[in-house]
Amino acid sequence: MTSSSPRTVIRSTGMSVPEKVVTNADFEAIVDTSDEWITTRTGIKERRMCAEGQNTADMAAEAGRVTLADAGLDPDDVDILILSTATPDHLLPATACETQALLGCENAAAFDISAACAGWLYGVSLADAMITSGMHENVLVIGSEKMSAILDYTDRTTCVLFGDGAGAALVSVGGGNGRGILGTHMRTNGRQARLLWRPAGGAALPSTDETRSDRMEYVKQEGREIFKQAVMCMESACRHVLDSTDRRISDIDLVIPHQANIRIIDAVASRLGVERDRVFVNIDRYGNTSSASIPIALDEARRQGRVGEGSTILMTAFGGGLAWGASVVVL
Ligand SMILES: CC(C)(COP(=O)(O)OP(=O)(O)OC[C@H]1O[C@@H](n2cnc3c(N)ncnc32)[C@H](O)[C@@H]1OP(=O)(O)O)[C@@H](O)C(=O)NCCC(=O)NCCS
Predict the structure, then answer these.
(1) Angle (nearest 5°) at CA 159 between 39 and 45
(2) Strand 312-319 relative to strand 254-257: parallel, antiparallel, unpaired?
(3) In a 3-state reduction of DSSP, which class is residue 87?
(4) Whose CA is closest to atom 9 on ligand 1?
(5) Dihedral over alpha carbons 71, 76, 80, 82 (to 10 degrees)
(6) Cystine design at 62: which of 16, 17, 101, 245 (Cβ 3.0–4.6 Å)?
(7) Per-residue pLDDT tens digits for 118-161
(8) Which ligand 1 atom lies nearest to the CA of residue 159?
(9) Residues 199, 208: contact at Cβ < 8 Å?
(10) CA triplet 203, 204, 206: central angle to 5 degrees?
(11) Domain boundaries in the chain?
(12) What is the DSSP code (8-state) at residue 298?
């Protein structure tokens, strides 16, 4: 979907990550791995992990607080709170509800969306549509993930890849001077849903002693196939959204890709013909934080001065679902 004269802007951003840092060396002590393998195969050096009792809603609320302060708005000004998460604190109610209470957004309707690593970008597109329709003015879109709660710390092929954290953006009515969300492309391929999933713990296969002893509540993935799909889908989404917004890759000041694997990021960048200094990377410090990864990266890029008002960014996401997308935004 594209809008020729955008009515929505990304007005502010924020993030929150737990204090606890887990290094590759820490993993050497619990699974058969090495700092050298993790660094060369993924680009990850460390990731964050929630403290005991620190949950998805806590990080989401903190990221939301920082985002509202950045915009100079009060919690009461938020009309809609969208929380993207693959790690809800409870299956009922939505984690957005607890986040709303923690933030004190008394006037907001709050709900979760579930689109794994692509969820935050899907949420931004939804916010854009809600504002463009004239229904709402301020939509807080948060991605928050406590991946450490769903990782199998005996499986070296998955546990080293992910980290905890939250990122957020306030999407508001605005635009003018070319600013705004110019367009978003989203796609899903449910035929490959089981390439990255948690087999048990949902309504189809509730947890039992057997599922637990088979460790079926944890994330399982076909890493190599996911890798190939990620590169193809992110490249294709970027090309679609560049075409539909009438932009070329040379118009983009900064590409902000989902941070899953440095080799995926490099492959997408090389296929798009964009040099590394126009690609934001922080996977070395956070690992894959699923739907929090792009808003964390966007917030860091803003605070480091890599982008500012008027910068054109291309964000692209990919993850379980399979679900992916890309968006062109003038900040
Ligand atoms: C998971 C991933 C890092 C594995 O890298 P890879 O180069 O594809 O490695 P392979 O799966 O081919 O495994 C190569 C070997 O390394 C081993 N290995 C896997 N994880 C390891 C680890 N943490 N430490 C040491 N060795 C490991 C494998 O067991 C395999 O050994 P084998 O050849 O004896 O069977 C990579 O496939 C990947 O990043 N995929 C995408 C995952 C992703 O992004 N998921 C989230 C999507 S949002």
Answers:
(1) 25
(2) parallel
(3) coil
(4) 224
(5) 70
(6) 16
(7) 999 999 999 999 999 999 999 999 999 999 999 999 999 999 99
(8) 23
(9) no
(10) 60
(11) 8-173, 180-330
(12) H
Helices (H), the chain: 24-28, 35-42, 56-71, 95-103, 119-132, 156-159, 209-213, 223-244, 262-272, 283-286, 293-303
What is the whole-number distance in angstroms between the Cα of residue 149 and the centre of ligand 1?
21
Could you tell me the distance, in angstroms and rounded to a whole number, from the CA of residue 156 to the centre of ligand 1? 8
Note whether 8-173 and 180-330 share their fold.
yes
Which of 34, 36, 154, 157 best tests ligand 1's pocket when mutated (most atoms within 8 Å of CB)? 157
User: Do the Cβ atoms of 323 and 121 come closer than 8 Å?
Assistant: no
What Å distances lie between residue 11 and 139, 220, 304, CA to CA?
10, 36, 17
Residue type for position 245: T
Q: Which overall architecture, per CATH, does domain 8-173 show? A: 3-Layer(aba) Sandwich (3.40)
Q: Which two tokens stand for residue 159?
A: 């546990």
Tokens at residue 119, please?
């969820």
Beta bridge partners of 181: 329
- CA 42 to chain CA mean position, Å: 18
Pocket-forming residues, ligand 1, beta carbon under 6 Å: 33, 37-38, 41-42, 117, 156-157, 160, 221, 223-224, 226-227, 230, 260-261, 288, 318-319
Furthest-apart CA pair in the chain: how many Å?
59
Angstrom distance (rounded) from CA 5 to CA 309: 17
User: Ligand 1 centroid vs 31 CA: distance in angstroms?
Assistant: 14
Question: Per-residue pLDDT tens for 259-311?
Answer: 999 999 999 999 999 999 999 999 999 999 999 999 999 999 999 999 999 99
The fold of 180-330 is Peroxisomal Thiolase; Chain A, domain 1 (3.40.47)
Q: Whole-prediction pTM value?
A: 0.96
